[in-house]
Amino acid sequence: MEHLKTFKSYGYEDTVSFAHDLAKDIKAGTVICLRGDLGAGKTAFVQGFARGLGIEEYITSPTFTIVNVYESGRLPLYHFDVYRISNSDEMYEIGYEEYVYGDGISIIEWPQLIEDILPDTRYEINILKNMDIDENYREIEIYKV
Q: Which domains, and CATH codes, for the chain?
């Protein structure tokens, strides 16, 4: 795994702006595995990323639907939240392969729960809170696998 960058975010707007800029040069077929504790800012990251793709729809976490599909930007965005998945087989039932190996961008929250079916080539983004610095401070680490 190759470390590409660490970004320091001091609040919601920093995270949204960073993700917005990251999305500008992203290529079709990219898979991003988004890791972080509850409340780390994963949804804020996806909101900014979606704006960077030109998606104007309101972005919410697909906690109960597993995947939200947004097709109004320059590339489709497939936003997965697999927190409630009990095994990888459930992912195939919702069309996982069509999304992940398709022409859009897939962002997968809680990817550690489906580690066995993740693509070999992907980006891993870790959002880490550090309450010693500030309650809104985050370090966003980007790796390429």
A: 2-144 (3.40.50.300)
